[in-house]
Predict the structure.
Amino acid sequence: MSNFNDDENFSFEENFDPEEAKHNYEQERSRVESLPIMKQAREIYKIVDSLMSLIEDDGCFMDHYRETIFQDAALIRAKIAAAEGADLYSLRMENAVLVKIHARSLEAHTYGLEMMDFKEVHYLEVLREAIEDFRLLFIQWVASFDKANDIQDNWGQLFC
């Protein structure tokens, strides 16, 4: 096993400007937040937040169900941001797959709530419509990924 010590070759960028870095970060954050898919993900989160306040606490199952629904809604936004922060096609697609999984899970939860006799069914329909709008934006978003910008990662080619 080799001893890797690269400290002597490490140096900070001489012209590093923290204010410029902060400005660049804020610009990128603003760009990601203004994407149509991110705006729709934020709308879904708001709907979920309102919907969850209508679910009665039972101290057990429904509390767990509520947490799972919130996690799905939050992870959609987090994984969109992660995909936008990645440049390589395979990394963007890995995050996109997770976005899809959490969006579909969220939709499945609406049917689960309905089967558990959730009384405010019209709110579930609002969420389903928002997820459908999101699905259409998702298709456009993934189509914008640059397939040519990728490298082999030795895990096999999952996304063609």
Summary: The mean pLDDT is 88.
